[in-house]
Design the sequence.
């Protein structure tokens, strides 16, 4: 599955947020038996209002959302790249994730110590980013010596990865994160970049943790973070971890009332989960029948056989074609039969790139 790693300085609200996520997941667990929760990993359902609409027109018995994981990565302090604090464990954990959710303290509270003695989320973000860049710089400088030698010897693998390594190194030496290479990167290059196992090549989402009173509006600190994020082409979500941990314990109706009173339309966690999903360049397709309506996760650009493979490897191996109905057609026309009659059910082959919201039925050889 796809994983978002939660990072940030100590005392910014990471655990509070993570616990709210896992409590939400625990509450869901009864309905979704395959949800496993490890100590520092929580798997949560991706909220998607389309599921209910598809299930209604299909008259499905059950709704099964798709899922994504969050990992609580504790231990980042100034000096982590040099092995301070839980440095090495931290660096190992962070290499395993696909994207980074960077929590920043934007709440004032004199009772909660700030490790640097002041509330300045933009400076905090730089502290964390600097540690990650230093760790990447060190690891690349060490590895590139060998690769340059092997490339001079015309070794194929070295020749393939060296250009990407050189580009990444140049950015880091310039004090910039490797994720700047991600924008518009070709798929082959992305695979090479991911293979380099760097920390700053992961896409990042900033989470501003604010007090309950400022959850709907944000504050001067969140404005500063938003400015910094937009300069980097990154996204920001404003959340109150304190609110989220309360909401996660309430039954649905009470949670709605509680959020209404605070001027919030939905739980911040829903926003966070969706933003994490987008950050990972993931999209959803659906399968629908009398038994269940179900959402499936694929990476943008996946072709029909690959999408079928998410359900079962046999579906991919024996793929013949896929009956495909766009979400809007499926719902507005009233389901599969009506969509077929209206000529809106397409037969797609091996080269079809699956689109977000496609309702699919795979034909395959066993
Ligand atoms: P971590 O070290 O980043 O995991 O931070 P924690 O989640 O353990 O939070 C550190 C402390 O800050 C705890 O005492 C939390 O209750 C408190 N805290 C977290 N979020 C908020 C918030 O939004 N407002 C206030 N006032 N305190 C918070």
Sequence:
């Amino acid at each position: 599955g796809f994983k978002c790693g939660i990072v940030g300085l100590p005392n910014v609200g990471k655990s509070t947020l993570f616990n709210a996520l896992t409590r939400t997941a625990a509450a869901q667990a009864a309905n979704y038996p395959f949800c496993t929760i490890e100590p520092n990993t929580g798997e949560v359902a991706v909220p998607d209002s389309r599921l209910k609409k598809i299930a209604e027109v299909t008259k499905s018995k059950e709704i099964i959302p798709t899922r994504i994981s969050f990992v609580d990565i504790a231990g980042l302090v100034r000096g982590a790249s040099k092995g301070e604090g839980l440095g090495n464990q931290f660096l190992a954990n962070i290499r395993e994730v696909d994207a980074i959710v960077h929590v920043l303290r934007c709440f004032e509270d004199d009772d909660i110590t700030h490790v640097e003695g002041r509330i300045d989320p933009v400076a905090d973000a730089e502290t964390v980013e600097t540690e990650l860049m230093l760790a990447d710089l060190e690891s690349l400088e060490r590895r590139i010596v060998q690769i340059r030698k092997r490339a001079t010897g015309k070794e194929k693998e070295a020749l393939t990865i060296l250009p990407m390594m050189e580009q990444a190194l140049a950015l880091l030496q310039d004090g910039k994160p490797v994720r700047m290479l991600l924008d518009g990167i070709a798929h082959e290059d992305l695979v090479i970049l991911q293979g380099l196992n760097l920390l700053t090549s992961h896409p990042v989402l900033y989470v501003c943790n604010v007090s309950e009173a400022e959850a709907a509006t944000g504050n001067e600190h969140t404005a500063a973070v938003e400015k910094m994020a937009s300069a980097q082409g990154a996204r920001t979500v404003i959340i109150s971890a304190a609110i989220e941990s309360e909401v996660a314990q309430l039954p649905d109706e009470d949670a709605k009332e509680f959020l209404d009173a605070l001027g919030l339309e939905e739980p911040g966690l829903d926003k966070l989960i969706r933003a994490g999903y987008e950050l990972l360049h993931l999209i959803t397709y659906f399968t629908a029948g009398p038994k269940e309506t179900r959402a499936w996760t694929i990476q943008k650009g996946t072709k029909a056989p690959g999408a079928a493979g998410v359900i079962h490897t046999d579906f991919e191996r024996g793929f013949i074609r896929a009956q495909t109905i766009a979400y809007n057609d499926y719902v507005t026309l009233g389901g599969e039969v009506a969509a077929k009659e209206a000529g809106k059910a397409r037969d797609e082959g091996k080269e079809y790139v699956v689109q977000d919201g496609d309702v699919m039925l795979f034909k395959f050889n066993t």
Summary: The chain is about 45% helix and 20% strand. The pocket of guanosine-5'-diphosphate is lined by residues 8, 10-16, 107, 109, 112, 209, 211, 240-242 (CB under 6 Å).
